[in-house]
């Protein structure tokens, strides 16, 4: 029977310690912090971002919990059969009244690199197919060794633009616009080296 390393329980316990410290600090800064947070959420933004641990929406956008509704997946992709994502989008439109949908990718995305790596097919390769579709349409086909960092950045940007288009093509968004709802979809990219967000200028609006 394999035994756990003795440091593992300490690492888990440390999360609870940090949580308690965070709670104390928030209440010291604002005594009503958690009372306000427990009220009904009314975010103005839905953030569809990458699962990468380096790009948490609240942190890089300078927002507090409750100010942004978040959905994340590998490489921030819009799959028309992804019921999880579609449910989040529908809830954001019809229940939260979100006005701004932000599809945000980031430079240095492992999903973008993996999509054009030429490695043998695995489950993740099926998920990343939309990026390869963009690559085939807008860039010459080649394996990852031939893609330099600038190429991958351009592919990242092109993929974000395509995901904005795909999100705008979902029945939920099309019906929302037809009903006169004011909803905009924005395509942004985050620079890990400087932490700055860039608007790619591919906004779709009602």
The average pLDDT score comes to: 89
Number of helices: 9
**Termini distance?**
60 Å
Order of helices and strands: HHEHEHEHHHHHEEE
Share of helical residues? 40-55%
Main sheet properties = 6 strands, mixed
How large, in whole angstroms, is the Cα Rg? 20 Å
Explain this structure.
This protein is of the alpha/beta class and 206 residues long. 47% of the residues lie in helices and 15% in strands. It contains 9 helices and 6 strands; from the N terminus they run ααβαβαβαααααβββ. Strands 1, 2, 3, 4, 5 and 6 form a 6-stranded mixed β-sheet that branches. α3 links the parallel β1 and β2. The N terminus is likely disordered.
Based on the model shown, name its key terms.
6-stranded mixed sheet, 47% helix, disordered N terminus, 206 residues, alpha/beta
